């Protein structure tokens, strides 16, 4: 055998020995990312107030087999989230909702949750969650956009006036059969220029009064107290400039969730008139998860303040599933960061908010 041939054979053998082994083992990151997306959907569905959260980054996770062997996996998830422009009343999918941009004062934070997912990835159960959110610092936004609207207190007199006047304008122009009343102010900002502009976002609910009710009697209108009452989200503004008053408003009314479910039941059981000689018996509701959302003030001096104390969401209880309560060591709550992440936002500004905030960049529970 020639020297050249021997060298070629040796190189080929080295390549074979050096080739990486192909593993058929499932990628745990794929399951973790799927778990965090499903968990965030469940969190948004459970919430009754505020704006829908969108996933920015899977910060960390841990997992353990479910005590009921065939039930799948229990996940403890730590996810960085961003507030979107969609209100939870809309029941929209978080993946289709737009995240607020820099000039709109983003609200960012972190959710920690326990969730179980069956082996078929179909049955998802949210046991508990805890979210902490805060707005971006005004000083940081001001450096990038000095002329942008600034976030202000939602209970200020000017904001309440903007909400009141814009709601009156909506009721006069909407063509809705019933009068709508103010529920909650959800965001407020102000902007200067050739006049002072006040902006308010607020939720509204249908009342028992006809829309033709005299405005002086509107405060006496009670909210429609039934699951079929319509609610909505409005964006209004009020300003006085050059001796003229300006009022703008736009509202989106949401179809009640109960009405959608009732419509489905009617279609499945055959159409019948709404004289209602039949009863509406809703199915038994599953046990709701234990969840909280806490809003923190903006962090103005990121580096100088220590992180705020935090606690995990309640540990899952499996007694209702016919299982004995497992020990807390089932799923360790302290763990090193894993090399598994997914980011849904590529904004440098947003990433800086998380990197500079000691409350959200530790990756483990305090």
Total number of strands: 10
Structural class by helix and strand composition: alpha+beta
Distance between the termini: 68 Å
Instruction: Determine the fraction of residues in helical runs and give it as a percent range.
Output: 10-25%
**Rg estimate, integer Å:** 27 Å
Low-pLDDT segments, ≥5 res: 3-25, 272-278, 322-330
Mean model confidence by pLDDT:
79
C-alpha geometry? flat
Query: What topology, given as strand order, has the largest sheet?
Result: 1-2-3-4-10
Architecture per CATH nomenclature, i.e. the level-2 architecture of the largest domain: Roll
Q: Kindly provide the name of the CATH class of the largest domain.
A: Alpha Beta
Q: How is the CATH topology of the largest domain named?
A: Nuclear Transport Factor 2, Chain: A
Domain count: the total is: 2
Order of helices and strands: HHEEEEHEHEEEEHEH
Features:
Nuclear Transport Factor 2, Chain: A; Kininogen_Fetuin_HRG; 2 domains; alpha+beta; 22% helix; 5-stranded mixed sheet; disulfide bond; 366 residues; 5-stranded antiparallel sheet; 10 strands; Cystatin_Fetuin_B; secreted
